[in-house]
Design brief:
Blueprint: H1 7-33, E1 37-46, E2 56-61, E3 67-71, E4 77-84, E5 86-93, E6 99-107, E7 112-114, E8 117-119, E9 127-131, H2 149-153
Parallel strand pairs: 1-7, 1-8, 6-9
Antiparallel strand pairs: 1-4, 2-3, 2-5, 5-6
Length: 161
Amino acid sequence: MQERHSPKALAYRLKSISWMLFTICITGAICVAQIDRAAFTGTVTDATGAVIQHAEVQAVDLATGLKSEAQTNSKGVYLVPGLAVGTYAVTISHQGFGTVSFQNVLLEVGLTRVLNAQLRVSVPGEKIQVEAAQPLEQTSPEVSGVITEQQIKEIPINGRN
């Protein structure tokens, strides 16, 4: 024999399930917002400005020696995602072109660092080394920043000694 439920009981169950699904979705969105990784991206071109497809990109975490690799796509763009925060050496190369190296590139939490490279036709073994400086972010309307330990210590605390 099939059990019949009143419309009020069904409405209550539907409401409870809706709230549960809403809570799960909100919790998931909050968890996704907690980013502890960073990435490198950029465009690789030659001296004329033409994009270079299938260029090899290698990012090495200087603290751990962990290597992450990527290749440029048909538009000359590469992406090395999911990198731990730290200081990196990034090398970009392609057969028939010289190698460009970016040394001591700092990645901070949630940062997608843009490193564009222009490769020159060259003799084998020629390398171009670039020391990284903090660039002005021009590709994202996002406003963000990293708070240092010193800044946290200097925050005034109301009502405490």
